[in-house]
Amino acid sequence: MRDDDLGNADEQAAEDTADRSVGTLELFFDLVFVYAMSQVTVLMLADISWAGFGRGILALAAVWWAWACYAWLTNTSDHDGPGPRLLLFLAMAAMLMAAVALPQAFGARALVFALAFLAVRLFQVVLLALDVRGEADVGSAALRLVPTLLAARQCWWPRRSSTRQNESCCG
């Protein structure tokens, strides 16, 4: 294959991506993220202090990062098959659970939020892995995401101590 043939293939792939419109599933998923971001305000209203502001910024950053990654993934990939669509529905359900638990993500519902948010991120890795099948370089990059997903979950994992119950490591 000649170099100019590779350029034409890249241009064709870019045109296919540019012509792709956003589907109703992606729009509904965006609404779930909007709900999650609105729940950050509920979290921050519960504790009007610098510590509450810090927890709100951390929660907003986590939700925004997940949304940005899903927006990129769904805009650059074709997820029209039944398997990827099911994974998107499962990720959407997990994000909804995380959003409902978000106002108490640093307290009583820390474990619910942590597990739901972990599921959201793991579904993303699976969708990415399905998307990069057969591309060794991109696939190895996707595998490097897994440790960061597990590390981020630690912030909301509840600690058990003799003095305070159900307190997360960040709250």
Protein model, in words:
Helix 2 runs antiparallel to helix 3, helix 2 runs parallel beside helix 4 and helix 3 packs parallel to helix 5 (110-131). This protein has a two-stranded antiparallel ribbon with strand order 1-2. It starts with a helix and ends with a strand. The chain is built from 7 helices and 2 strands. It has 171 residues and is mostly helical. Helix content is 74%, strand content 2%. The radius of gyration is 19 Å and the shape is globular. Strand 1 and strand 2 form a beta hairpin.
Radius of gyration, CA atoms, in whole angstroms: 19 Å
Average pLDDT value?
77
Approximate strand percentage = under 5%
Count helical runs: 7
How are the strands of the largest sheet arranged? Answer: 1-2
Largest sheet: 2 strands, antiparallel
Secondary-structure element order, as H and E?
Answer: HHHHHHHEE
What share of the residues lie within helices?
over 70%
Annotation keywords:
single chain, 171 residues, mainly alpha, two-stranded antiparallel ribbon, 2% strand, disordered C terminus
Please provide a brief summary of the model:
The protein has seven helices and two strands, in the order H-H-H-H-H-H-H-E-E. By secondary structure, the chain is mostly helical. It has a two-stranded antiparallel ribbon.
